[in-house]
């Protein structure tokens, strides 16, 4: 799943290539991906890109008003959420908009959800692999009208302090792994970076937020800033096609079950759930005690 660093880099990538470009066509290939119907998607045509902003793991492409067509026209925002298996694929040269719009572009195109064309023949595809379709596209006049964005917690890159993190985590008692992934508490962190943050902070993923001391929260804040800051720096300037591999290379424990922890040399372990898994180092994070896999027995804290 693309998380804050990758989405931030995608936003910068789009901002550099699309600002002042005019949308000449847009097509939804998976109708379920389009979550809004007023204004209609065709209203993006003829609008120039005025900016690209990140909101947690969401991207909002600002589209200026078409003043010459309608003086009362308002700015629109094409808002994208890539969900678990979505991705943005940039094309310097798109097939003409007059061709069948749902036609794949090469073997790596993946199942097409949305295609957008610009006036310099460039454009992008949104694709989503797998059978569980969760990618979301909204066209709105106000980004805050989208409930998941309106309820986002604080941004851990721009607004991280031990106080902000402590206030968020203490809103309810839950496992720290889940709290870091809760978008209403902290915006932009998902499964991968929560594993990395907890490894850097030397905390069990199943420690309860109510058990955290002020020193624990401060340590977690430092780890969050360090992990995300490094990941953002590594992703910055990379083209969209390289971001996934860059993310994998930067992981210390996530996705590395059975390999050796780069800090202590212990074997990285895994706990699996129905639709995801987490990875951790027992020596670094749980005092050497392995956590029981939830599929087999109760968790050991």
TrEMBL record:
What keywords does the record list, in alphabetical order?
A: DNA damage, DNA repair, DNA-binding, Glycosidase, Hydrolase, Lyase, Metal-binding, Multifunctional enzyme, Zinc, Zinc-finger
Which GO terms are recorded in the biological process aspect for this UniProt protein? base-excision repair
Reactions performed catalytically: Hydrolysis of DNA containing ring-opened 7-methylguanine residues, releasing 2,6-diamino-4-hydroxy-5-(N-methyl)formamidopyrimidine; 2'-deoxyribonucleotide-(2'-deoxyribose 5'-phosphate)-2'-deoxyribonucleotide-DNA = a 3'-end 2'-deoxyribonucleotide-(2,3-dehydro-2,3-deoxyribose 5'-phosphate)-DNA + a 5'-end 5'-phospho-2'-deoxyribonucleoside-DNA + H(+)
Gene Ontology molecular function: any one: 8-oxo-7,8-dihydroguanine DNA N-glycosylase activity
Protein name (record): Formamidopyrimidine-DNA glycosylase
In its UniProt entry, the species of origin is given as: Serinibacter arcticus
**Record carries keyword Zinc:** yes
Report the InterPro entries cross-referenced here. DNA_glyclase_Znf_dom_DNA_BS, FPG_cat, FPG_N, H2TH_FPG, Ribosomal_uS13-like_H2TH, Znf_DNA_glyclase/AP_lyase, Znf_FPG/IleRS
């Amino acid at each position: 799943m693309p998380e804050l660093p990758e989405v931030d880099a995608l936003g910068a990538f789009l901002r550099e290539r699309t600002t002042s470009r005019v949308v000449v066509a847009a097509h939804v290939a998976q109708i379920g991906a389009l979550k809004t119907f007023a204004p209609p998607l065709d209203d993006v045509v003829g609008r120039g890109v005025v900016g690209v902003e990140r909101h947690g793991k969401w991207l909002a492409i600002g589209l200026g008003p078409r003043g010459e067509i309608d003086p009362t026209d308002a700015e629109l925002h094409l808002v994208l959420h890539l969900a678990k298996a979505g991705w943005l694929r940039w094309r310097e040269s798109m097939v003409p908009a007059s061709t069948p719009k749902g036609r794949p572009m090469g073997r790596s195109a993946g199942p097409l959800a949305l295609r957008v064309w610009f006036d310099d023949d460039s454009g992008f595809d949104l694709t989503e692999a797998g059978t569980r379709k969760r990618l979301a596209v909204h066209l709105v006049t106000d980004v805050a009208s989208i409930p998941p964005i309106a309820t986002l917690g604080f941004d851990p890159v721009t607004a991280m302090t031990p106080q902000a993190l402590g206030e968020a985590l203490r809103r309810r008692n839950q496992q720290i792994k889940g709290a870091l992934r809760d978008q209403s508490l902290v915006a932009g962190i998902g499964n991968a970076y929560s594993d990395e943050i907890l490894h850097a902070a030397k905390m069990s993923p199943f420690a309860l937020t109510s058990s955290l001391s002020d020193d624990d929260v401060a340590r977690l804040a430092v780890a969050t800033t360090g992990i995300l800051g490094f990941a953002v720096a590594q992703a910055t300037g990379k083209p969209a096609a390289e971001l996934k591999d860059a993310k994998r290379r930067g992981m210390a424990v996530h996705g590395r079950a059975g390999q050796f922890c780069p800090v202590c040399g212990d074997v990285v372990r895994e706990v699996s759930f129905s639709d995801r898994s987490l990875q951790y180092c027992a020596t670094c994070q749980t005092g050497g005690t392995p956590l029981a896999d939830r599929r087999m027995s109760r968790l050991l804290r």
